[in-house]
Backbone:
């Protein structure tokens, strides 16, 4: 569960020599709170429907559909009480580059990875090139699972195929422009503040101040981008940290409630039931 708790992920995905990893995301996991990372992420729908939010946009990934999460984009998953399964493929763009100035990297790979060119993040099987991308991504997941000889080469080759299909089907006269929103970048300061101080009493003024916004604007913009209020986010983060302590320690529930910032163990249990769909005791037993 640890990889789900860092808002700005610092962990290395894959190994030093092969910066690539595949993670299963399913209804067996708690909802994934808004977070971001340097790597590109490609979500592959496997079973039923997965709800994902990227910035201010909501997406529903069906079976055999793809959703691309650009580098450093704030994203989350909130598929409440739904059975679903998808795979998250994460990789460092450096694994597709070279030590020399590379026109392929400059003209085709980097614009897609950094989302400095406009393209549809949600890819379905409605077109042949969409089907080709979905096929390659399923092959990548299969190669990673089998890990047969030279599987890394097969994964890298398939990723190049994905970028070829994406690049060759973008409008040829597309205008490249920076899509990074400075307001969203400021909002990340508040998220990091919550990550470091969730165990203490936090006021809305402190959260807003981290993003250099008025309280009124901060609350409206936070809800617009993340789909929840600042205090809903804080409570969910505290509950996920509480779940981590329940799983990894033998601390009593009352102590855990106070350790993650709740002043009342009954309220902690109520919020735990709301966000985890079970009581802290049941979660402890099942884990």
Residues:
């Amino acid at each position: 569960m640890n990889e789900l708790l860092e808002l700005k992920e610092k962990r290395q995905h894959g190994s030093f020599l092969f910066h690539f990893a595949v993670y299963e995301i399913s209804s067996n996991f708690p909802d994934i709170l808004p977070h971001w990372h340097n790597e590109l992420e490609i979500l592959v729908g496997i079973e039923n429907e997965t709800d994902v939010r990227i910035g201010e946009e909501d997406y529903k990934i069906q079976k055999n559909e793809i959703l691309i999460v650009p580098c450093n984009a704030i994203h989350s998953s909130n598929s409440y009480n739904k059975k679903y399964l998808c795979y998250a493929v994460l990789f460092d763009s450096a694994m597709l580059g070279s030590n020399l100035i590379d026109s392929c990297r400059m003209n085709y790979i980097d614009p897609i990875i950094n989302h400095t060119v406009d393209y549809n993040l949600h890819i379905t099987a409605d077109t042949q090139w969409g089907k080709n991308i979905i096929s390659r991504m399923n092959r990548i997941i299969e190669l990673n699972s089998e890990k047969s000889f030279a599987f890394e080469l097969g994964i890298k080759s398939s990723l190049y195929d994905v970028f070829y299909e994406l690049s060759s089907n973008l409008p040829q006269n597309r205008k490249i422009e920076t899509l990074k929103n400075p307001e969203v970048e400021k909002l990340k300061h508040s998220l990091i503040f919550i990550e470091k101080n969730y165990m203490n009493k936090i006021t809305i003024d402190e959260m807003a101040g981290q993003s250099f916004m008025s309280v009124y604007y901060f609350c409206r913009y936070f809800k617009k981008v993340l789909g929840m209020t600042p205090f809903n986010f804080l409570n969910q983060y505290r509950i996920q940290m509480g779940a981590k302590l329940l799983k990894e320690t033998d601390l009593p529930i009352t102590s855990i409630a106070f350790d993650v910032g709740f002043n009342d163990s009954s309220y902690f249990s109520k919020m735990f039931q709301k966000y985890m769909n079970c009581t802290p005791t049941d979660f402890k037993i099942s884990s």
Remarks:
- The longest strand covers residues 40-47.
